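Posting for a labmate who doesn't have an account.
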Amino acid sequence: MAKIIKLSATRIDAFLKCKLKYWFNYVDHLPRVPSPAFKLGTAAHESLEFAGQIWKEKGKFTKTDKKKIIDKYIEISVREGIEEMGIHKEGIRLVTQRINDFDHGKIIALEKTFGYNDAKSKDITTDEGVPLIGAIDKALEVDEDTLLIVDYKTSKTAPTIHQLKDDRQLSIYNLAAHKLWPGYKRIILSLDMLRSDILYTYRTDEERKEFSKYLKVVYDQMVSLKKKDAKAHLNIFCPWCDYREYCDEYKKACKKSDYKFLKTAELDNEHLVKEWNDIRSVKKIIELRERELSMTIMDKIRDAYETLTTDSEEIYIRQNSRLSYNKETVKEFTSYEEFVPLVNLNKKAVENYIKDNPAVKDKIEATARVNYTAPFLATKKIKGK
């Protein structure tokens, strides 16, 4: 008997990007570590669902309602373990921005699930018999013939027009919406890019049918996938993979040093593009691995309040300092002609001016500020080692 699985955009993406990642996640069910971006998305989604419930009931937000929504975001942010205050505050900004611009139609449903095993969730199957699973963030009635499907996104980059038209998640929502709310003649799809704008698109009847057939092909291959065929596929997304610590190919890429650089002029198009892709993948893996190791070392040093040592070297946290001068103060004690070459407050130029004009030295230096770069790791040899 064939395995019964339910397709979601996330499941399809994992299957297409890397069969091994798909196997780790959906077959072996290995534990994963959510990324800060994932945690931010969860906090924003849940707090905006809470906002939608208030709007659905009242049709507006009072000042008290807005405070409750932000308090809800803060509660979820702490629950999800968002450590970086910059990310936490960014979430507050995104939620605040959206609740200040919330009215886009009559709310029909919030966080409408389909395919889940509960009483509130309806089973959705394509015409080809492929079961689907997902949750629509918000469904709005624009008019009696038109439904608007909204999917919240906290991504920093927005898709192009072509990417929006081919977005698999929106295409799945389009299929589900036609079965959940069959009374509407038109269904508009949108990505609410919380960091920027709301993007709109649609699917024709023909596009919906073609996508449904495509899902059948993906589904059949998923069902027939065997462990021996679940091969790792190195790509530029590997450094962000939640399962990279389980992946032997990723570990090899991190340790690889015996690179063979062939003469590019002797490579045909096939091998030229292949090596280019290979290098891009490994480069990103190495960069992110170095950053991950650096963060771990910094945490160890901060927790222990002392440098980290090996048999031969000592590693410590270092910061560079930069002295910056107050523009208004410098302007006050210079003529217009003298100030113009200093306008970008080049440290060396200001110091040369002070040297030539010692009478204003104390006044200018009194408002100077020392700024520090982001901390970085430095090493020094241990004597006698």
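Reply:
Got it, the structure tokens are right above this. DSSP finds 14 helices and twelve strands in the chain.
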